[in-house]
Amino acid sequence: MTSSNQTKINLVDVLQQFSVQYIEQYQLLHKHLPLIEQDENWPSPCELTLSDDDTINPPPLSTQVFWRPTLIEKEKELNFDNVESALEIILHEDIKRYFTAQFSESLDASCEEGQLTLLFAWNEADFERLQENLIGHILMKRRLKQAETVFFAVTDEEDMIISVDNDSGAVWVERVGCKPHKKLAESLPQFIRTLIPRVS
C-alpha cells in the first residue's frame, strides 16, 4: 500500500470517527438526531425519513427532517478535476479526500486553539458551489502573491479560517486575505484526530 493510499484511508477513517462521535453526543443531549429545515429544492442524501430508522421520534415540526453525515457513494465519484484544470494546479490529496468523503451539514468542534466549524457539501450542487468558492480563494491568494491554501473550516473569530497548505499539507490558521500565521498540525488527518465535537 502506498503512502498516498494510506493517507486516504486514514483521513476517511478519522472523519467517520469524528462524525459518529458528533452524532452520538447530539443524541445524548437532545434524545434525537440533528434536525434541519427541509428544502425540497435542496435535498441531500443526509436526510432521513421514518422508514430509514423506525426507532427515531417524529420531528417536532413537519418542515423539519432528521439528518446525519452520509458517506458519498462510490458511483457518484465526486472530484476536483475541473478545478485543477481551470487553475492548472494539483490540489493536495488530503483536501480532495476530505471534501469527497461525505455529505454533511457543517459540524462544530473544539480544539486547543478554540472553536471551529468543519465545512462539508450538503449535496452534489453544494459541492459545485464549494468548488467555485475554493477557486475564488486560490485566485485571491495568487493575486496577493501568497502561498496557495485551501480552507476547510471557519472559526468563531470573524474572517479567520482554517486551511491546508497546498504544498505541504500542513493545517494553518489564516485571516482572509492574509498569510497563514499559525500552524495547527502537520496534516489534516492529524488535525481531525485532535478535534472534540461541540454540540449545543
TrEMBL record:
Membrane topology: Peripheral membrane protein
Annotated compartments: Cell inner membrane
Ubl conjugation is among the record's keywords: no
Pfam families for the chain: Syd
UniProt keyword list: Cell inner membrane, Cell membrane, Membrane
Family matches, as InterPro entries: Syd (IPR009948), Syd_sf (IPR038228)
Family assignment from sequence similarity: Belongs to the Syd family.
Function as written in the Swiss-Prot or TrEMBL entry: Interacts with the SecY protein in vivo. May bind preferentially to an uncomplexed state of SecY, thus functioning either as a chelating agent for excess SecY in the cell or as a regulatory factor that negatively controls the translocase function.
Protein name in UniProt: Protein Syd
GN (gene name): syd
